[in-house]
Amino acid sequence: MFRRREPVPFAFVAEADRFRSNVAPPPRDRASAGQIAGRWLLGMTIVAALVGSLVLGMPALSTGTHSPAQQSQASQGH
């Protein structure tokens, strides 16, 4: 019939189950056109930076199979 509760070290934790607020939080303000444009611009800047770093970094990551392999003079016996 009654549930037996385990003891808790803090009284406010035990009382939290009984407390129910009837006060609703205020509604969120809608973003203005400037805020929306700023968020869009920030997102596009981040995407452009990622794409730019990928474009600039790809030549460094390529293996260069189309060019002949360079060997040091020590490996050629000079």
The helix content is: 40-55%
Number of helices: 3
Distance between the first and last residues' Cα: 95 Å
Say how many strands there are.
0
- As a whole number of angstroms, the C-alpha radius of gyration is 32 Å
For the largest beta-sheet, the strand count, sense and barrel status come to: none
Structure classification: mainly alpha
Question: Rough shape?
Answer: elongated
Mean pLDDT: 77
Description:
This protein is an all-alpha fold and 78 residues long. The chain contains 3 helices and no strands. The protein has helices spanning 11-16, 33-61, 73-76. The longest helix is centred in the middle third of the chain and has 29 residues, at 33-61. It is elongated. It starts with 10 loop residues before the first helix and ends with a helix. The model has no long low-confidence stretch (mean pLDDT 77).
Protein traits:
0% strand, mainly alpha, 78 residues, elongated
List the topology elements.
Blueprint: H1 11-16, H2 33-61, H3 73-76
TL;DR?
It is built from 3 helices and no strands.
